[in-house]
Amino acid sequence: MVLQKSSSMVLKVRRKPAESVAPAGPTPRELKLLSDIDDQKGLRYHLPLVQFFPYNPSMAGKDPVHVIREALSKALVFYYPLAGRLREGHSGKLVVDCTAEGVLFIEADADVTLDYFGVDPLPPFPCFDELLYDAPFSDDGIINSPLLLIQVTRLKCGGFIFAIRVNHTLCDGCGIGQFIKAIAEISQGASNPSILPVWCRDLLCARDPPRVTFIHHEYKQLSLDDNKTVSFKPSQASFFFGPQEIDALRCLLPRRLAQSSTTFEVLSACIWRCHTAALQWQNPNQEVRLLCTVNARFEPCRFSPPLPEGYYGNAFVLPTAVSTVEMLCRRALSYALELVKKAKKDASEEYVHSTSDLMAIKGRPAFSMTGSFIVSDITKCGFRDVDYGWGKPLYSGLVRAGIDDISGVSYYVPYTNSRGVHGRVVLISLPEEDAMKRFEKELNEILQIRDEISFVLDA
Fold first, then answer.
1. Fold match flag (13-204 vs 217-457)
2. Catalytic: which of 39, 120, 168, 377?
3. Could you tell me the pTM of the whole model?
4. What is the CATH architecture of 217-457?
5. What percentage of the chain has pLDDT greater than the value 90?
6. FRET partner for 129 with CA separation of 20 to 30 A, picked from 87, 260, 283, 338?
7. Does residue 419 carry a pLDDT above 50?
8. How far, in Å, CA of 449 to CA of 456, rounded?
9. Domain map of the chain by residue range?
10. 387 catalytic, yes or no?
C-alpha cells in the first residue's frame, strides 16, 4: 500500500513570535560539564521530533498551547540545565552555563485538520518546516544558543501537533523522552515528575588515564574507491514493519538463528543489506559498515550497577559491523545477521568507557559517515506513551531519517497503524529518488510479499 503526499498541498500556519520560557521558580546558577560521550562532534546538532494528537472531546475548552507552556516552565525547574546555554571550555570541552535564560516556544495555528497528514501519519510530513519554524537565533550553531525549541500548533479539528528540537549534546532519545514525559505529567496536575532528573555526567567521562580497549571502526575514517555523486536533497521514506513482515524475515533464516535473534538484529541485517544494494557500489570489494546504536541503560551493555534512574544524558555507543559490498549483498541474510549480532555483543560497559577514553585521546572525533549506515532504535524511549491530557499520540518520533542533508542514518519508531497493527516504522534516507526505488525493490524481493510493506515517499 502506497501513501504518497501530494506536492500540490499547501500548509498555512499562523505563528506568534517565538517567546522565551524560563523556569517557573529559582534554579542554581552554575556550570555543568558534559560527559565525553555527550560532546563528541557527531552529536553537535539539533534533533527534531514531532507528536500528532487527535481531538479529545473530554478536553473541550482547554488550550494545548497554554497547558503545555505552563507545564514546560514548571518542568524546567527540575531540568534547569536545558534553560541555560552551552559554552566552550578548555580545549573545546562543552559546559552548560545554567543561566535560566529559557527555551524558545512558538504558539501556532494551522488551517488544516489531522486528516491532512493521512490515515496513518508518517514521515516525511508535508511542509514540516511550518510546524517547527526556525525562529531567529534558534539555530545559530550550538554555542550560546537556546538548547530547546518547541512549537505547539493547533489544528482546525481540535487536535494539535507538538514539535521539539533538542540540542543532541544534552540528551539522547531516552533523555528527551524522559523530559517530554515530565512536561506531560505536570500538564496533568503532577507537582513534580515521577522520575527526577539526574546529571552525573562524570559517569561517562574518560578515565584517568584514558585507555582505548576496543577497535572503534565507527570513528575510523574510510576512503572510497567509488566516485559517487551525492544529492543535496536526499529522498525520504517510511516503511512499516508489523509482525507479518518480521515473521517473513525470520522465515529466511536458519531456525536456530531466527529463534536466538532479536527483532532489532533481524531488521537491521535486512535494512543494511537493502540500503547497501540501493547505493549501487561499483567496487564489490568496497568496505561498508553498519553502526548499531546500543544504549548503556539496557542490555547487552547495561552498566553494573546501572546508570542512575533519571540520567538524561547521552548514554549510547555505536558498535560496528564490517563487510565488503559483495559479501553483504550476495550471501544469505544470515551472514549480515551474524555480523550484526557480533557487533552488538561487543557493546559492554567496558566498550562505553573505551569510547569515552577515545574521545579524550583523539579530540572528540565524529563518527565516520563514509561507507557507513547508522541504525537507531528509539522504541524504548517512551515517546508513544506521552499524554498531555488529550490521550496518546498517533505518531511520536523523529521527523525524518538522516542528519540535516546527510543521508545514511535510519531510525526505528514504535507505531500502531490505523488497522490496530503494532510494529515499528523504519525511517530511511537515501541520496536520490532512484536509490529509494532500488531500496524498495530489494526489500520486496527479500520479503517476497510485494505491496505488503506500507511506505511513504516524500513529495
1. yes
2. 168
3. 0.93
4. 2-Layer Sandwich (3.30)
5. 85
6. 87
7. yes
8. 17
9. 13-204, 217-457
10. yes
